[in-house]
Amino acid sequence: MKKEITKLEIGCGPKKIKGFYGIDLFNYSGVDLVVDVDKGLPFKDNSIKEIYTSHVLEHVKNFEFVMEEIYRVCKPNARVIIKVPYFSGKSAFFEFHRRFFRFDSFTDFEKSEKSMLTTSNPVNFEIKKRKLIFLKKWYLFYNYLIEPLFNLHSKLCLFYEETFLRNLFPAYEVYFELKVKK
Q1: Is 70 exposed, middle or buried (0-12, 13-18, 19+ CB in 10 A)?
Q2: For residue range 65-96, what is the model confidence (pLDDT) as tens digits?
Q3: How many other CB atoms are there within 10 angstroms of residue 55's CB atom?
């Protein structure tokens, strides 16, 4: 009998998280299954309890389709953790990235009805948590103070994003924790 897959890491690379089933486009050691997420996820509907993906969604060709697939395979109330490069940071401008992400990314997926701004099939995620992550290096000592300050409240993150501060102190990535609403 096959082991039931309940925790999925999309784009695990060679360092898969312990306890997760890892898929990746490339056959690194530790990858459980080679999958091109742009062609779909090879899992049953409503079968996954938790998904983790870090620095993958900026590479996909059809972002809306991939989000529909994540929604499809997740059980109701499943947890989806997403880390993506923040649009003002240097890492957002890697040559193979196809899109940028901001603090309000994924808010359009909080609607249960169809929206021309989101996918053709309705998906419904609740944003449980989101925060800006700043690069932690000894020469960027101020980031240790800036990160907790701006993440005190979502309005501070939006203030940061809408002002010169995003260029003066560029964030490295943005973290999202979503809950699947079915």
Answers
A1: buried
A2: 999 999 999 999 999 999 999 999 988 998 99
A3: 16
- Residues whose CB falls within 8 Å of the CB of residue 66, separated by 6 or more in sequence, listed in order: 37, 38, 57, 60
Which amino acid, one-letter code, is at 146?
Answer: I
Tokens 């992550």 locate to: 133
Query: The pTM is what?
Result: 0.91
